[in-house]
Design brief:
Elements: H1 2-18, E1 94-99, H2 115-132, E2 136-142, H3 158-161, H4 174-184, E3 188-193, H5 211-214, E4 219-222, E5 225-228, H6 233-249, E6 254-257, H7 274-279, H8 286-308, E7 313-316, H9 339-342, H10 347-352, E8 358-359, H11 374-384, E9 389-394, H12 414-424, E10 428-433, H13 436-441, H14 446-454, E11 476-483, E12 486-492, E13 505-512, E14 526-531, E15 537-540, E16 549-556, E17 566-570
Parallel strand pairs: 1-2, 1-10, 2-3, 3-6, 6-7, 7-8, 8-9, 9-10
Antiparallel strand pairs: 4-5, 11-12, 12-15, 13-14, 13-16, 16-17
Pfam families: GHL10
InterPro entries: Divisome_Glycosyl_Hydrolase, FN3_sf, GH, GHL10, Ig-like_fold
Keywords: Hydrolase, Signal
């Protein structure tokens, strides 16, 4: 009798439990991260500024009943997720492309294209770059005292509409369009300005409103071009004002200059700025005075950016060689043109004094070029990057064009060797490629090499702690549900962090098994980046319905500081 009674009790117990409704998921919010004070900066404290609205999200539409899914206990962790063989690729890496508009090098493909064609070309280009793994674009928006944007005192660019000063018809603002398209794809947008050119050539279209007519006393003629006289304080202030206007009016992530300051030498010609030198004499020799003019311009622009939007980055891409060792014992073991002497650009001074946030030396040489070997110059920059991020500028346009002078570019191995060498250098935090057209044309499969190898897995942009060192708070109330389309994750936006930042995007990680080790530094575990603060749903359509998973979600702010994770188990 006792055994029969015991059996009845067991049956009642199991029947009662089988009728219980699935419990809702309650994710364990991690403890608040101890916030370290921001790194001291050589700039004024962050002023109050209105931050741009986040990109509008594309949200999921399915909300399914919640199946039984548990929270993750840290003490249970073991390594279960299978991962590809080989070294762990970098989770943080700047991956950018230069998009040149001057002379229609990259975009638009020709002058005066219909607006719809301009936009279609840009979308196709950004789509290809996103697919390739790029996380930033550097677009030339002012090539010669002109503008690829509406809110400008300078005339519309001839390379956009075919005639300088002629607006797009039907009207649109290309810069606003480009920024929105880049941000939707999770790519930073850096606005690229040319500083020295007022006209491009003798045959260039020049509008009556061009600065060469309004302020002829600011202009020098050299090499068939009209150039800004950087020795005049009013000229430097004008250029800084052009940049500050774009920073104020547009949601850009960075300001970018290339290698043009004082012009490259033209045989038989002299840059006639003697009267400006005499009028602004400060006791320096003329060469030093010119270098000081460029440094003053860099400083003035840096200060104007900080005063308007302290979160906007400032970067410069100079000619690769600062000085040759033959001219200065601290120079590189190279034998080529020198930015210090030829362009009056003391690039090492800028990085040592923290005047810029990142530098992209143009190392457009192969590893076999005897006068300037690639690795020699990169190694010099690794030792001299100073207080800013170092990204390497690659001459993608030279790939497949080997010559007797520089044979390395004819070899399939040259570009991959450069990328592998970069990743061996702790100081190198990324690459920028010149230019978009070269990557599109894919010489020696350079684009394929990036997409299927070096950029196969996503990478977050490296943070700049001197601009912002405070991470956002974690997403709230992470839940998960099995649906017909896959595993759906949904969460709430984090509260504002100490500095007022919320989330600019979210990173979703997936790990196999019920007790996996959370390899948050391994980008092979990232399955999605959800752009926009309110994009708080994601469906993992690649999940195997027979497997158990643990998901982690983090919030990332505009300067790419990442929060602590919240986690949830599935099955």
């Amino acid at each position: 009798m006792r055994s029969i009674a015991f059996l009845v009790l067991l049956i009642v117990f199991f029947l009662g439990n089988s009728c219980r409704r699935p419990q809702p998921v309650v994710t364990k919010r991690p403890p608040a991260r101890v916030v370290k004070p921001p790194v001291a900066k050589p700039v004024p404290q962050k002023p109050v500024a209105v931050k741009p609205e986040p990109t509008k999200p594309i949200t999921a539409t399915i909300v399914a009943p919640i199946t039984r899914i548990d929270t993750l206990e840290a003490e249970e962790l073991v390594d279960e997720t299978p991962i590809d063989n080989g070294p762990v690729p970098p989770k943080r890496e700047f991956r950018a492309v230069w998009i040149a508009t001057i002379d229609n090098i990259d975009w638009p493909s020709k002058k005066g294209l219909p607006v719809a064609s301009q936009q279609r070309e840009l979308i196709e280009m950004f789509d290809q770059q996103q697919q390739m793994g790029v996380n930033a674009v550097i677009v030339q928006i002012r090539a010669a005292a002109d503008a690829f944007y509406a809110k400008s005192s300078e005339p519309w660019s001839e390379w956009l509409t075919g005639q300088q000063g002629l607006a797009p018809n039907p009207f649109y603002d290309p810069l606003t369009f480009m920024i929105e398209q880049a941000h939707q794809r999770g790519m930073e947008f850096h606005a690229w300005f040319n500083l020295d050119r007022a006209t491009f050539s003798k045959t260039a279209s020049v509008a009556p409103t061009n600065i060469v007519y309004r302020k002829p006393e600011w202009i020098l003629t050299y090499g068939g071009r009209k150039l800004f006289n950087l020795g005049a304080p009013t000229v430097r202030t004008y250029i800084a004002g052009i940049v500050a206007n774009v920073v104020r009016e547009y949601d850009i992530d960075g300001v970018h200059f290339d290698d043009y300051f004082y012009p490259y030498a033209v045989p038989g010609q002299t840059l006639r700025d003697d009267s400006t030198y005499q009028a602004n004499f400060n006791g320096m020799k003329k060469d030093d005075w010119r270098r000081d003019n460029v440094t003053k311009l860099v400083t003035e622009i840096r200060d104007s950016i900080r005063d308007n939007k302290p979160w906007v980055k400032f970067g410069i891409s100079p000619f690769g060689i600062w000085k040759n060792r033959s001219n200065d014992a601290e120079g590189s073991a190279t034998n080529g043109g020198q930015s210090y002497y030829d362009l009056y650009a003391d690039t090492r001074k800028w990085v040592r004094e923290g005047l810029i946030d990142y530098i992209v030396p143009q190392v457009y040489f192969s590893t076999e070029f005897s006068r300037v070997p690639y690795k020699t110059l990169v190694e010099w920059w690794c030792r001299n990057a100073g207080k800013c991020h170092l990204y390497i500028g690659h001459g993608a346009y030279r790939v497949g064009r080997g010559s007797e002078r520089d044979p390395g570019w004819g070899r399939f191995t040259e570009f991959p060797d450069q990328m592998r060498y970069n990743r061996q250098q702790q100081a190198v935090l990324g690459s920028v490629f010149f230019s978009a057209k070269s990557l599109k044309n894919n010489p020696l499969a350079i684009r394929d090499s990036l997409q299927t190898n070096f950029y196969k897995y996503p990478a977050l942009v490296p943070p700049m702690t001197w601009l912002d060192s405070i991470p956002p708070l974690s997403p709230r109330d992470l839940k998960a549900a099995d649906t017909a389309d896959g595993v759906e994750l949904f969460w709430h936006q984090p509260e504002e962090a100490e500095d007022g930042d919320g989330a600019t995007y979210y990173v979703v990680y997936r790990f196999e098994g019920r007790r996996p080790k959370l390899r948050l530094n391994d980008p092979r575990c990232i399955i999605a980046q959800c752009m926009g603060e309110s994009t708080t749903r994601f469906i993992d359509k690649t999940a195997d319905p027979k497997k158990k998973y643990t998901y982690a979600v983090t919030a990332v702010d505009r300067l790419h500081n990442e929060s602590q994770e919240v986690t949830v188990k599935v099955r």
